[in-house]
C-alpha cells in the first residue's frame, strides 16, 4: 500500500481508473482543497480568490473541504465489496472508542462526539468499483462556512481535536487493509 501526496494521488487515481487497475492507496492532503460532486455546493469565486484547488470527483453529492494533514483513501477492485466501507467505518469507530470518543455511523459518515470526522463513497467506473473516503485531521470550520453554500447538516470536526494525528490514521488504515485482504 502506497502513501502519496495529494497531487500525486490524484494523478495515480486517474491512471488506475483509466486503465481499470485494482489498487489500495492513501493520500495525505498537503493544502486546503475542495473535492466536489454533481451537486456542487461551494462558492467557486471564493475558492479562486483564496487560491484553493478544486477537484471534480464526478460523483453524486456536494462539496467536501479538506485540510492539510487530512487523509484520503482509495480502493479499486473488479469485484463489488458491498461491506467494505461499512467495515472500514466500524474499524475506525473502534479505534475512536478505544480513546473514549463516542461514535455514530449515519449513512456513509462517521461521527465523533456528534460531529462528522469521516465520509465514504462508492462508484462503479467501467468494470471497476471505486471506494473512497476522507478522514479529517484538521478542520477549519470558519473557512468551510465561507466556502460551502449548502446548509451543513452535520458539523465537521478534525480528529486532532482528540489528539489523533495523520500518522495514527495512516497506521489504522494500513492495519485495516491487512485485516480486510
Structure description:
- With 181 residues, this protein is α+β, with helices and mostly antiparallel strands.
- It has five helices and ten strands; from the N terminus they run E-H-E-E-H-E-E-E-H-E-E-E-E-H-H.
- Strands 1-2-6-10-9-8-7 form a seven-stranded mixed sheet, sandwiched between helices. The chain has a three-stranded mixed sheet with strand order 4-3-5, with helices on one face.
- Helix 3 (84-97) packs across helix 5.
- The chain is globular.
- The model has no long low-confidence stretch (mean pLDDT 91).
List the helices and strands and how they pair.
Elements: E1 2-5, H1 6-19, E2 23-28, E3 33-36, H2 44-50, E4 53-56, E5 63-66, E6 71-77, H3 84-97, E7 103-106, E8 109-112, E9 115-125, E10 128-135, H4 141-147, H5 166-180
Parallel strand pairs: 1-2, 3-4
Antiparallel strand pairs: 2-6, 3-5, 6-10, 7-8, 8-9, 9-10
TL;DR of this structure?
With 181 residues, the protein is of the alpha+beta class. It has helices at 6-19, 44-50, 84-97, 141-147, 166-180, and strands at residues 2-5, 23-28, 33-36, 53-56, 63-66, 71-77, 103-106, 109-112, 115-125, 128-135.
- Judging from the principal axes of the Cα atoms, what is the shape? globular
Strand content: 25-35%
Estimate the mean pLDDT confidence.
Answer: 91
Across the major sheet, the strand order is: 1-2-6-10-9-8-7
Report the sheet with the most strands, covering strand number, pairing sense and barrel closure. Answer: 7 strands, mixed
> Roughly how many Å is the radius of gyration?
15 Å
- Contiguous helical run count: 5
Amino acid at each position: 500500500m502506497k502513501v502519496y501526496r495529494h497531487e500525486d494521488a490524484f494523478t495515480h487515481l486517474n491512471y488506475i481508473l483509466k486503465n481499470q487497475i485494482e489498487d489500495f492507496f492513501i493520500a495525505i492532503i498537503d493544502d486546503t482543497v475542495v473535492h466536489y460532486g454533481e451537486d456542487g455546493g461551494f462558492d467557486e469565486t471564493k475558492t479562486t480568490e483564496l487560491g484553493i484547488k478544486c477537484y471534480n470527483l464526478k460523483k453524486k453529492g456536494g462539496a467536501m473541504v479538506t485540510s492539510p494533514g487530512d487523509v484520503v483513501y482509495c480502493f479499486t477492485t473488479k469485484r463489488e465489496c458491498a461491506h467494505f466501507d461499512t467495515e472500514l467505518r466500524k474499524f475506525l469507530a473502534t479505534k475512536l472508542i478505544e480513546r473514549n470518543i463516542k461514535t455514530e455511523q449515519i449513512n456513509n459518515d462517521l461521527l465523533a462526539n456528534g460531529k462528522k470526522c469521516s465520509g465514504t463513497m462508492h462508484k462503479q467506473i467501467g468494470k471497476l468499483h471505486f471506494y473512497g473516503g476522507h478522514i479529517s485531521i484538521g478542520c477549519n470550520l470558519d473557512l468551510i462556512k465561507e466556502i460551502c453554500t449548502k446548509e451543513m447538516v452535520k458539523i465537521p470536526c478534525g480528529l486532532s481535536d482528540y489528539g489523533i494525528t495523520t500518522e495514527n490514521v495512516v497506521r489504522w488504515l494500513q492495519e485495516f487493509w491487512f485485516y480486510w485482504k
